[in-house]
Target: 4-hydroxy-3-methylbut-2-enyl diphosphate reductase
Amino acid sequence: MTKPPLIIHLAAPRGFCAGVDRAIKIVEMALEKWGAPVYVRHEIVHNKYVVDDLRAKGAVFVEELDDCPPDRPVIFSAHGVPKSVPLEAARRQMLFVDATCPLVSKVHIEAARHHEAGLQMIMIGHEGHPETIGTMGQLPEGEVLLVETVEDVARVAVRDPARLAFVTQTTLSVDDTAEIVAALQARFPAIVGPHKEDICYATTNRQEAVKVMAPMADAMLVVGAPNSSNSKRLVEVGARAGCRYAQLVQRATDIDWRALEGIRSLGITAGASAPEVLVNEVIDAFRERFEVTVKPVVTAEENVEFKVPRVLRETA
Ligand code: 0CN
Ligand code: SF4
Model:
Protein backbone atom coordinates (compact mmCIF):
# COMPACT_ATOMS: atom_id res chain seq x y z
CA MET A 1 0.00 0.00 0.00
CA THR A 2 1.37 3.42 -0.86
CA LYS A 3 1.56 5.93 1.93
CA PRO A 4 -0.09 9.34 1.56
CA PRO A 5 2.32 12.29 1.22
CA LEU A 6 2.88 14.58 4.21
CA ILE A 7 4.91 17.76 4.46
CA ILE A 8 6.30 18.33 7.94
CA HIS A 9 7.17 21.95 8.64
CA LEU A 10 9.78 21.78 11.38
CA ALA A 11 10.13 24.95 13.41
CA ALA A 12 13.54 26.34 14.32
CA PRO A 13 14.45 27.37 16.91
CA ARG A 14 12.71 24.63 18.91
CA GLY A 15 13.58 22.47 21.90
CA PHE A 16 16.35 22.95 24.42
CA CYS A 17 17.35 26.48 25.39
CA ALA A 18 20.61 27.47 27.05
CA GLY A 19 19.10 27.46 30.54
CA VAL A 20 17.73 23.93 30.18
CA ASP A 21 20.96 22.68 28.69
CA ARG A 22 22.90 24.15 31.62
CA ALA A 23 20.50 22.80 34.26
CA ILE A 24 20.71 19.24 32.92
CA LYS A 25 24.51 19.52 32.69
CA ILE A 26 24.61 20.64 36.32
CA VAL A 27 22.83 17.46 37.45
CA GLU A 28 25.03 15.25 35.28
CA MET A 29 28.24 16.94 36.44
CA ALA A 30 27.13 16.80 40.09
CA LEU A 31 26.55 13.03 39.73
CA GLU A 32 30.02 12.66 38.24
CA LYS A 33 31.66 14.77 40.91
CA TRP A 34 29.88 13.56 44.03
CA GLY A 35 28.38 10.23 42.96
CA ALA A 36 24.78 9.10 43.48
CA PRO A 37 22.46 10.01 44.99
CA VAL A 38 22.29 13.69 44.15
CA TYR A 39 19.00 15.32 45.18
CA VAL A 40 17.11 17.70 42.88
CA ARG A 41 14.48 20.03 44.31
CA HIS A 42 11.60 19.96 41.78
CA GLU A 43 11.87 18.55 38.23
CA ILE A 44 15.15 20.01 36.96
CA VAL A 45 13.19 21.03 33.85
CA HIS A 46 9.57 20.16 33.09
CA ASN A 47 10.08 16.99 31.08
CA LYS A 48 9.43 13.42 32.18
CA TYR A 49 11.92 11.91 29.73
CA VAL A 50 14.72 14.15 31.04
CA VAL A 51 13.77 13.48 34.66
CA ASP A 52 13.52 9.69 34.15
CA ASP A 53 16.91 9.66 32.42
CA LEU A 54 18.59 11.54 35.28
CA ARG A 55 16.80 9.38 37.85
CA ALA A 56 18.27 6.30 36.17
CA LYS A 57 21.73 7.90 36.59
CA GLY A 58 21.19 8.42 40.33
CA ALA A 59 19.32 11.71 40.75
CA VAL A 60 16.51 11.76 43.32
CA PHE A 61 13.71 14.26 42.65
CA VAL A 62 11.92 15.81 45.64
CA GLU A 63 9.65 18.82 46.08
CA GLU A 64 11.08 20.29 49.29
CA LEU A 65 14.39 20.68 51.06
CA ASP A 66 12.88 18.77 53.97
CA ASP A 67 12.85 15.67 51.75
CA CYS A 68 16.65 15.83 51.29
CA PRO A 69 19.17 14.27 53.68
CA PRO A 70 21.57 16.91 55.06
CA ASP A 71 24.67 15.06 53.89
CA ARG A 72 23.96 14.78 50.15
CA PRO A 73 24.21 17.52 47.51
CA VAL A 74 20.99 19.19 46.39
CA ILE A 75 20.35 21.06 43.14
CA PHE A 76 17.67 23.72 42.66
CA SER A 77 15.71 23.49 39.40
CA ALA A 78 16.01 25.83 36.37
CA HIS A 79 12.80 27.63 37.38
CA GLY A 80 14.34 29.27 40.45
CA VAL A 81 13.54 29.11 44.15
CA PRO A 82 12.36 31.55 46.82
CA LYS A 83 15.18 33.22 48.72
CA SER A 84 14.31 31.17 51.81
CA VAL A 85 15.43 27.92 50.10
CA PRO A 86 19.18 28.59 49.70
CA LEU A 87 19.14 30.36 53.08
CA GLU A 88 17.72 27.27 54.74
CA ALA A 89 20.13 24.97 52.86
CA ALA A 90 23.04 27.09 54.08
CA ARG A 91 21.70 27.04 57.63
CA ARG A 92 21.62 23.25 57.45
CA GLN A 93 25.18 23.34 56.04
CA MET A 94 24.04 21.44 52.96
CA LEU A 95 26.04 21.32 49.75
CA PHE A 96 23.78 22.95 47.16
CA VAL A 97 24.08 24.00 43.53
CA ASP A 98 21.64 26.48 42.06
CA ALA A 99 20.58 25.52 38.51
CA THR A 100 18.24 28.52 38.22
CA CYS A 101 18.50 29.84 34.66
CA PRO A 102 20.59 33.03 34.63
CA LEU A 103 17.70 34.75 32.84
CA VAL A 104 15.41 33.91 35.76
CA SER A 105 18.06 35.06 38.25
CA LYS A 106 18.19 38.35 36.36
CA VAL A 107 14.48 38.85 37.08
CA HIS A 108 15.09 38.02 40.77
CA ILE A 109 17.74 40.75 40.89
CA GLU A 110 15.42 43.27 39.18
CA ALA A 111 12.67 42.56 41.72
CA ALA A 112 15.06 42.96 44.65
CA ARG A 113 16.44 46.22 43.21
CA HIS A 114 12.98 47.78 42.80
CA HIS A 115 12.03 46.68 46.29
CA GLU A 116 15.16 48.29 47.76
CA ALA A 117 14.27 51.49 45.91
CA GLY A 118 10.98 51.46 47.82
CA LEU A 119 8.74 50.43 44.92
CA GLN A 120 5.91 47.94 45.34
CA MET A 121 6.24 45.05 42.92
CA ILE A 122 3.69 43.56 40.56
CA MET A 123 4.51 40.24 38.91
CA ILE A 124 2.87 39.09 35.70
CA GLY A 125 2.86 35.30 35.89
CA HIS A 126 0.90 32.11 36.45
CA GLU A 127 -0.20 31.39 40.00
CA GLY A 128 1.42 28.30 41.49
CA HIS A 129 4.08 27.94 38.79
CA PRO A 130 7.50 27.33 40.41
CA GLU A 131 9.08 30.30 38.62
CA THR A 132 6.37 32.63 39.92
CA ILE A 133 6.76 31.21 43.43
CA GLY A 134 10.53 31.66 43.17
CA THR A 135 10.43 35.23 41.87
CA MET A 136 7.74 36.34 44.33
CA GLY A 137 9.75 34.62 47.05
CA GLN A 138 12.68 36.97 46.50
CA LEU A 139 10.81 39.58 48.53
CA PRO A 140 9.09 39.36 51.89
CA GLU A 141 5.65 37.73 51.97
CA GLY A 142 2.93 40.02 50.58
CA GLU A 143 5.38 42.42 48.89
CA VAL A 144 4.70 41.16 45.35
CA LEU A 145 1.22 41.35 43.85
CA LEU A 146 0.45 38.76 41.18
CA VAL A 147 -1.55 39.55 38.05
CA GLU A 148 -2.38 36.91 35.46
CA THR A 149 -4.79 38.75 33.16
CA VAL A 150 -5.89 42.18 31.96
CA GLU A 151 -8.91 41.79 34.27
CA ASP A 152 -6.57 41.29 37.24
CA VAL A 153 -4.92 44.62 36.43
CA ALA A 154 -8.24 46.41 36.86
CA ARG A 155 -8.73 44.78 40.26
CA VAL A 156 -5.28 44.96 41.82
CA ALA A 157 -5.09 47.09 44.99
CA VAL A 158 -1.75 48.89 45.28
CA ARG A 159 -0.22 50.90 48.13
CA ASP A 160 0.77 53.93 46.06
CA PRO A 161 0.16 54.10 42.29
CA ALA A 162 3.14 56.43 41.94
CA ARG A 163 5.62 53.93 43.42
CA LEU A 164 5.26 50.71 41.47
CA ALA A 165 7.38 48.39 39.35
CA PHE A 166 6.67 45.17 37.47
CA VAL A 167 8.49 41.99 36.48
CA THR A 168 7.25 38.97 34.51
CA GLN A 169 7.67 35.23 34.26
CA THR A 170 10.14 34.34 31.45
CA THR A 171 7.92 31.84 29.62
CA LEU A 172 4.70 33.79 29.03
CA SER A 173 2.88 34.46 25.77
CA VAL A 174 4.56 37.52 24.25
CA ASP A 175 1.26 38.86 22.88
CA ASP A 176 -0.84 38.30 26.02
CA THR A 177 1.87 39.87 28.14
CA ALA A 178 2.07 42.95 25.91
CA GLU A 179 -1.65 43.49 26.58
CA ILE A 180 -1.23 43.08 30.32
CA VAL A 181 1.74 45.47 30.36
CA ALA A 182 -0.29 48.00 28.35
CA ALA A 183 -3.13 47.71 30.88
CA LEU A 184 -0.71 48.25 33.76
CA GLN A 185 0.80 51.31 32.08
CA ALA A 186 -2.65 52.70 31.33
CA ARG A 187 -3.81 52.33 34.93
CA PHE A 188 -0.46 53.22 36.56
CA PRO A 189 1.40 55.61 34.21
CA ALA A 190 4.36 55.88 36.63
CA ILE A 191 5.00 52.12 36.78
CA VAL A 192 8.62 51.15 36.24
CA GLY A 193 9.62 47.98 34.41
CA PRO A 194 11.91 46.32 31.90
CA HIS A 195 12.05 47.69 28.36
CA LYS A 196 9.18 45.35 27.30
CA GLU A 197 8.84 42.43 29.75
CA ASP A 198 11.14 39.69 31.10
CA ILE A 199 10.21 36.98 28.59
CA CYS A 200 13.43 35.23 27.57
CA TYR A 201 14.98 34.95 24.12
CA ALA A 202 14.10 31.23 23.86
CA THR A 203 10.40 31.75 24.63
CA THR A 204 10.24 34.68 22.18
CA ASN A 205 12.03 32.84 19.37
CA ARG A 206 9.97 29.64 19.70
CA GLN A 207 6.71 31.63 19.61
CA GLU A 208 7.93 33.61 16.59
CA ALA A 209 8.75 30.40 14.68
CA VAL A 210 5.31 28.97 15.48
CA LYS A 211 3.60 32.11 14.20
CA VAL A 212 5.30 31.66 10.83
CA MET A 213 4.84 27.87 10.73
CA ALA A 214 1.27 27.49 11.99
CA PRO A 215 -0.53 29.06 8.99
CA MET A 216 1.32 26.65 6.64
CA ALA A 217 0.06 23.52 8.39
CA ASP A 218 -3.25 21.60 8.58
CA ALA A 219 -2.29 20.56 12.11
CA MET A 220 0.48 21.25 14.56
CA LEU A 221 2.13 19.27 17.35
CA VAL A 222 4.19 20.73 20.18
CA VAL A 223 6.50 18.24 21.85
CA GLY A 224 6.47 19.12 25.53
CA ALA A 225 5.05 18.36 28.95
CA PRO A 226 1.66 19.40 30.34
CA ASN A 227 3.39 21.21 33.23
CA SER A 228 5.72 23.13 30.91
CA SER A 229 4.55 26.72 30.71
CA ASN A 230 6.55 27.64 27.62
CA SER A 231 5.38 24.51 25.76
CA LYS A 232 1.72 25.19 26.52
CA ARG A 233 2.12 28.75 25.27
CA LEU A 234 3.37 27.37 21.92
CA VAL A 235 0.11 25.42 21.50
CA GLU A 236 -1.90 28.61 22.18
CA VAL A 237 0.23 30.67 19.82
CA GLY A 238 -0.21 28.05 17.08
CA ALA A 239 -3.99 27.98 17.48
CA ARG A 240 -4.16 31.76 17.51
CA ALA A 241 -1.98 31.98 14.40
CA GLY A 242 -4.65 30.05 12.53
CA CYS A 243 -3.80 26.38 12.91
CA ARG A 244 -7.08 24.43 13.25
CA TYR A 245 -5.57 21.63 15.34
CA ALA A 246 -2.71 22.38 17.76
CA GLN A 247 -1.86 19.76 20.37
CA LEU A 248 0.75 19.11 23.02
CA VAL A 249 2.32 15.65 22.92
CA GLN A 250 4.86 14.29 25.38
CA ARG A 251 6.01 11.68 22.88
CA ALA A 252 4.85 9.61 19.87
CA THR A 253 2.44 7.46 21.91
CA ASP A 254 0.35 10.59 22.62
CA ILE A 255 -0.43 11.27 18.95
CA ASP A 256 -4.16 11.10 18.20
CA TRP A 257 -4.03 9.52 14.73
CA ARG A 258 -7.76 9.74 14.18
CA ALA A 259 -7.75 13.49 14.68
CA LEU A 260 -4.98 13.76 12.09
CA GLU A 261 -6.67 11.70 9.37
CA GLY A 262 -6.46 13.32 5.96
CA ILE A 263 -3.88 16.00 6.80
CA ARG A 264 -1.41 16.92 4.07
CA SER A 265 0.86 19.16 6.13
CA LEU A 266 1.91 19.18 9.76
CA GLY A 267 3.85 21.66 11.87
CA ILE A 268 6.15 20.38 14.59
CA THR A 269 7.94 22.31 17.31
CA ALA A 270 9.19 21.53 20.82
CA GLY A 271 9.21 23.41 24.10
CA ALA A 272 12.45 24.59 25.69
CA SER A 273 12.54 21.54 27.98
CA ALA A 274 11.82 18.87 25.32
CA PRO A 275 14.78 16.84 24.04
CA GLU A 276 15.36 16.45 20.30
CA VAL A 277 15.17 12.61 20.56
CA LEU A 278 11.45 13.01 21.24
CA VAL A 279 11.01 15.26 18.19
CA ASN A 280 12.71 12.57 16.11
CA GLU A 281 10.53 9.90 17.68
CA VAL A 282 7.42 11.86 16.63
CA ILE A 283 8.74 12.39 13.07
CA ASP A 284 9.58 8.68 12.80
CA ALA A 285 6.03 7.76 13.85
CA PHE A 286 4.75 9.87 10.95
CA ARG A 287 7.21 8.24 8.55
CA GLU A 288 5.60 4.89 9.33
CA ARG A 289 2.23 6.14 8.10
CA PHE A 290 3.10 8.83 5.56
CA GLU A 291 5.60 9.56 2.82
CA VAL A 292 7.21 12.41 4.75
CA THR A 293 9.07 15.44 3.42
CA VAL A 294 10.60 17.57 6.17
CA LYS A 295 10.85 21.32 5.52
CA PRO A 296 12.60 23.47 8.14
CA VAL A 297 10.98 26.79 9.03
CA VAL A 298 13.89 28.82 10.35
CA THR A 299 13.06 32.21 11.84
CA ALA A 300 16.13 32.83 14.04
CA GLU A 301 19.52 31.45 14.96
CA GLU A 302 20.46 30.93 18.57
CA ASN A 303 23.96 30.79 19.96
CA VAL A 304 23.38 31.47 23.66
CA GLU A 305 25.34 29.36 26.13
CA PHE A 306 25.55 29.58 29.91
CA LYS A 307 28.46 28.37 32.02
CA VAL A 308 27.86 25.87 34.80
CA PRO A 309 28.66 27.10 38.34
CA ARG A 310 32.32 27.23 39.30
CA VAL A 311 32.04 24.44 41.90
CA LEU A 312 31.35 21.98 39.07
CA ARG A 313 34.07 23.31 36.78
CA GLU A 314 36.74 22.71 39.43
CA THR A 315 38.13 19.19 39.49
CA ALA A 316 37.20 17.08 42.50
O1 0CN B 1 9.31 23.55 30.63
P1 0CN B 1 10.30 24.22 31.50
O2 0CN B 1 11.08 23.36 32.43
O3 0CN B 1 9.67 25.36 32.38
P2 0CN B 1 8.38 26.30 32.19
O4 0CN B 1 8.19 26.60 30.77
O5 0CN B 1 7.23 25.59 32.82
O6 0CN B 1 8.74 27.52 32.99
O7 0CN B 1 11.30 24.96 30.52
C1 0CN B 1 12.44 25.60 30.99
C2 0CN B 1 12.12 26.97 31.32
C3 0CN B 1 12.50 27.62 32.39
C4 0CN B 1 12.88 28.25 33.48
FE1 SF4 C 1 16.13 30.23 30.77
FE2 SF4 C 1 14.30 30.95 28.97
FE3 SF4 C 1 15.24 28.51 28.99
FE4 SF4 C 1 13.65 29.28 30.97
S1 SF4 C 1 13.09 29.06 28.81
S2 SF4 C 1 15.53 28.11 31.16
S3 SF4 C 1 14.31 31.44 31.16
S4 SF4 C 1 16.43 30.38 28.57
